[in-house]
């Protein structure tokens, strides 16, 4: 199976607190630095679960971009896009003692991907293309995402989208985003409860991510796979990749694998 993703390849800095944050003083933590970004995470998990994975996006020509790209390449993901330029994006994820996280995002050059920079051969043989919602709510990458859907659908791929963020949906405008979904016509839509409530999107498949309560997939509730919860960052991306590659059971297994470790990648 060939899974293509389009969106951000960022440098993830994940900080797992060892104790409550001491304002104005030092606080012990365990950290991870590596590739990240929703589209990159889904590609990495798809590759780890047995698919051929291709990431499509714009990355920086700085040290952060080089490190993020190298991390994705070593996970057997093909990295496609225009030549690196400018400054790569960085995300800092602050993980609390219970595994919950707060994210501080700087997307760098990623949203500047244009439709003209896409090459049709990147989508040849693609069985599924997954779009980060973040890539639909900025320009010019939003227009590029629509062009990617046309190319991928022409290759026979099914289209999936993750709604990504309530705050970003509100900033972009629900009505404006709904118009884009009419043009994209996704086959599968991922999102948590708040995101689905913010923007109900008609599609054949609707996946609701419910955190510690598991997920609702194709109208059926799935409990989380038992195990330790160390860091919830990226669990939804792992779930998405698992669903695309192998269906609901693999989705829940991948999410459990993700939360058992620090960071977003397999």
Give an overview in words.
By secondary structure, the chain is of the alpha/beta class. The chain is built from 8 helices and 13 strands. The protein has a 9-stranded mixed beta sheet, sandwiched between helices. α7 (235-246) runs antiparallel to α8 (248-259). The longest helix has 14 residues, at 141-154. The radius of gyration is 17 Å and the shape is globular.
Question: Which characteristics define this entry?
Answer:
32% helix; 266 residues; alpha/beta; 4-stranded mixed sheet; 27% strand
SS-based class = alpha/beta
Specify the number of helices.
8
Find the count of extended strands (DSSP E, 2+ residues): 13
H/E series = EEEHEHEEEEHEHHEHEEEHH
Unreliable segments of 5+ consecutive residues: none
Report the major sheet: 9 strands, mixed
Ends distance:
18 Å
Query: What does the overall shape look like?
Result: globular
Question: Reading side by side through the largest sheet, how are the strands ordered?
Answer: 5-4-1-8-9-10-11-12-13
What percentage of amino acids are in beta strands?
25-35%
Radius of gyration: 17 Å
Instruction: Estimate percent helicity.
Output: 25-40%
On the 0 to 100 scale, the average pLDDT is 95
Q: Summary?
A:
Helix content is 32%, strand content 27%.
């Amino acid at each position: 199976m060939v899974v293509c993703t389009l969106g951000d390849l960022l440098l993830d800095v994940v900080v797992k607190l060892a104790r409550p944050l001491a304002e104005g003083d030092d606080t012990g933590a365990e950290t991870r630095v590596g590739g990240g970004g929703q589209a990159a995470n889904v590609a990495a998990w798809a590759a780890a679960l047995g698919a051929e994975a291709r990431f499509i996006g714009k990355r920086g020509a700085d040290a952060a971009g080089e490190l993020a790209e190298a991390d994705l390449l070593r996970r057997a993901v093909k990295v496609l896009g225009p030549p690196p330029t400018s400054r790569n994006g960085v995300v800092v994820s602050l993980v609390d003692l219970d595994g919950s996280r707060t994210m501080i995002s700087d997307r760098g050059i990623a949203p500047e991907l244009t439709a003209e920079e896409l090459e049709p051969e990147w989508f040849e043989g693609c069985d599924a293309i997954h779009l980060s919602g973040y890539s639909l709510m900025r320009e010019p990458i939003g227009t590029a995402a629509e062009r990617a859907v046309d190319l991928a659908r022409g290759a026979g791929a099914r289209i999936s989208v993750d709604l990504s963020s309530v705050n970003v949906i509100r900033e972009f405008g629900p009505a404006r985003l709904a118009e884009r979904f009419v043009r994209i016509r996704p086959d599968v839509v991922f999102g948590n409860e708040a995101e689905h409530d913010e923007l109900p999107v008609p599609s054949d498949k609707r996946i609701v991510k419910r955190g510690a309560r598991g997920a609702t997939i194709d109208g059926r509730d799935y409990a989380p796979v038992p195990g330790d919860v160390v860091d919830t960052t990226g669990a939804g991306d792992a779930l998405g990749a698992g669903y695309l590659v192998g269906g609901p059971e693999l989705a829940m297994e991948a999410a459990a694998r993700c939360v058992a470790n620090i960071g977003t990648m397999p």
